Structure formats: C-alpha cells, structure tokens
Amino acid sequence: MARAKRSSSILETARQRLAGLKSITPAPDFGPGLSLLTYEQKSTALAARLDGYNQKLAALDDEQNNLERDEKELHDLNKRVLSATEAQYGPDSSQYELAGGTRLSERKRPSKKTPAPKT
User: Fold this and answer.
1) Share of residues in the chain with pLDDT > 90 (%)
2) What is the pLDDT of residue 107?
3) What is the DSSP secondary structure assignment for residue 105, as one 8-state letter?
4) Which residues contact 50 (CB under 8 A, 6 or more apart)?
5) What radius of gyration do the chain's Cα atoms show?
6) More confident call, 109 vs 48
C-alpha cells in the first residue's frame, strides 16, 4: 500500500497570498526583515522540501515492494527445499528434521475428546 503523499495548506495559502501581493502597485514595503523576496524564497524552499519528501516516500514505496517480492520468493524457496528434502530422505528422517521439518514419528496424534458423563 502506497504511503500518502504530503501536501501543505500553509504553502498553498502562501502562494495565493504572494500572488496577490505581487499584483499590488507599487510594491508594498513592510519594513526591515519582511519583504516579498524573503516571503517568496521561504515558500519556494518549503515547496522544494515538500517535493523532495514526497519523492523519498515514492522511492521507499518502491523499495518496500521489492522487499516484499523478494520475501515471497524466499518463502516459496523455503517450502520447496523442505519438500525436496522430504522427498529425497523421507518424512521420518533426521535429514528432514535438520532441514526444519517435524519428523513423522514425532508428530502428536490428535486425541479424541471423550464427552463428559451426563449426570
């Protein structure tokens, strides 16, 4: 399942506000330390960081898919190796047990439950 990509309502508000402020003639002067250029740079920096974050999420999703695929392949191989060991040496052999199987003679037989006596 893909991770949800992130968006920013604050960034969208800044973009809309910046577009409105740019249309004011003459350009507004907000005093020292607060300019349209600084505002635009901060919003552009956040947009770039957000894009980078979403790209990393996409790469991580791809890596997770590859990992799950490899895991399924190894699971299938595990079953096949155990079955091949059973076929070659038998289901009650010590080799089958060494490969991770439970020997036939060591399996517990299901016990029949006797009904409780009625009183």
Assistant:
1) 76
2) 85
3) G
4) 6, 7, 8, 11
5) 33
6) 48
